[in-house]
# Entry
Amino acid sequence: MILLKNIFLNEPISVIVQNKPETFTEWLSNPNTIIAISALLISLSGLYLSVRYNRKTLNETMKYNKLSVEPLLLLSMFTIDEKLTINLENAGLGSANLLPLEITHNNQTYNSFWTLLQPFIQNIKNEIEYYDHYTFNTNTPLSASNKIDLINITFKANQTMKSIASELNGVNVKIRYKTMYDEERVLNEKLMLNI
# Structure
């Protein structure tokens, strides 16, 4: 009110300013300073918590995304009547790029079931009705929910099938593969079949 009155009456306004230097303790105990420092601390702690939460959320999202397209390889050996099959199935949600296979039997390493069984098959050729095998190269893709028959043999007699199956029992199979994120995984399985 005084200011408006001075303006309308053209009277000069006199303002008295005291330039008294404050000490640090006086400045720190000033209510305006306390409010300003409190607001700064609250905003910095809020920023820290926000960044930390967002980083955690981002890491969890990336981890979930990787797991959501992770392949899950299953190796199985089974017999039906006179038929012996060893297959590799991708039961996961993402595709797998298969790397060369390593089969260990009697301290020898083979790169396919064909090379492992070749000596046995030569001796019983007449007792095999059908024989098929699959050899994969580097980066052979195996899509989700698909399977590959690594070996498929149909025998004329059940006894011959049992002898080959018992020879394959205990064979170690090592399958290396890469995920969609180019991370290498290893499947180590020992073939087992109750005959």
